[in-house]
Request: fold
Amino acid sequence: MKLNGIKLTWLGHATFRVETPEGKTVLLDPWVMGNPACPAAERDVKNVDVMLCTHGHFDHIGDAVEIAKKHSPTVVGIPELCGWLGKKGVKNLAEMNKGGTQKAGDIRVTMVHADHSCGITDGDQVVYGGEACGYVIEFSSGLKIYHAGDTNVFGDMRIISELYAPDIALIPIGDHYTMGPREAAYACNLLKAKTVIPMHFGTFPALTGRPSALQKLVPNMEVVELKPGVTVS
Reply:
């Protein structure tokens, strides 16, 4: 796996920290404090320059408001989710929608489709959070990472491959709430990324998919199983 100057840390579930070649910190799907898969040493977020939110479920934005208020990052999300975050006091919102590309800090971010639901738990209510999405992130080194968010496989992953050609794909494999290994293997063949990093597995008992099962189904692809809290570069 070639990371071309970035540092990548999986914090468990769908949460990743990426340090760019310029030294900026990007946090994807900020759920650390209540995330049982996140190491204790990583639950106190020290710095964030850009925060990307794929959708409004608690296990993806559980700490978004607190972290954003503390560190004032640029916060990227679909308009309805950004609207809710704004009502909670989050500043520096950089809303966008699917198919759009914008610069956030020192990265270029393209919002792409995801096949999933998106309700935000707000007290004892569930409010509309727009649609779920994924992101293709391009770094100054030219490396492109696709974070699929929560999703099932969908045929337009081929378009993501053809238009954006991600080098690394972060894809859910846990089953039950997202793709399992069988669907994820099909997604791998559509995306044609050089490296696949599984996520959204093992956090809860229902999330039974495992990287070893995915690797057996895509023997000619590089499937990298990260350990929560371990940084690769």
